[in-house]
Amino acid sequence: ILFSIVMSSPSARLRVVCVDDLDELVSLSRATFISTFELHNTKEDMDNYVRTALHPDTLRGELENPNSRFYFITGPEDKHAVGYMKINWGPAQTEPQEGEEGGIELQRIYVSKEAQNRQYGTIMMNNLETWCTTSSSSSLSSQDDSERSRMSFPDMDVRYLWLGVWEK
């Protein structure tokens, strides 16, 4: 397991998304994608992307991929996630980084329209950056007992983080 955390701060809680969270992930993914891109794309393109890339079966497959991880962020007063990020490494990266070992792809990072301007994106990025710079020696605690969410870092030398914004 690469990067599995539950982190809390006075302003937010970041946690691993599991298959039990699929309905919430589908709903949040669709809402944030549509609100972000609907003004710049045709309805047909939007419907096609949502129907395929954000279909429950597609997202379930991504959740079950051992080389990917989703994280929800929740504010102190929120009952549900207000944003999420998805990271990939190794063969799960959307563009293979041949000859470049140690890369982590930030494939998606979204915050709901209602929760924007509350620093949630910054919190997610800061946590990811901290993890990337301390991955081989870091020890973050997890409150989730499932095998997939248990804290365990391989001896991975993270050399770079890249933003995978060109989804297929």
Report on the architecture of this protein.
A six-stranded mixed beta sheet has the order 1-2-3-4-5-6, sandwiched between helices. The protein is of the alpha+beta class and 168 residues long. It has four helices and six strands; from the N terminus they run ββαααβββαβ. The model is unreliable at 1-5 and 136-155 (pLDDT under 50). It starts with 5 loop residues before the first strand and ends in a 5-residue tail after the last strand. A hairpin with a 4-residue loop joins strand 1 (6-8) and strand 2 (13-16). It has helices at 22-37, 43-52, 56-64, 120-134, and strands at residues 6-8, 13-16, 68-74, 83-89, 103-111, 160-163. The longest helix is centred in the first third of the chain and has 16 residues, at 22-37. Helix 1 (22-37) packs across helix 3.
SSE arrangement:
Layout: E1 6-8, E2 13-16, H1 22-37, H2 43-52, H3 56-64, E3 68-74, E4 83-89, E5 103-111, H4 120-134, E6 160-163
Parallel strand pairs: 5-6
Antiparallel strand pairs: 1-2, 2-3, 3-4, 4-5
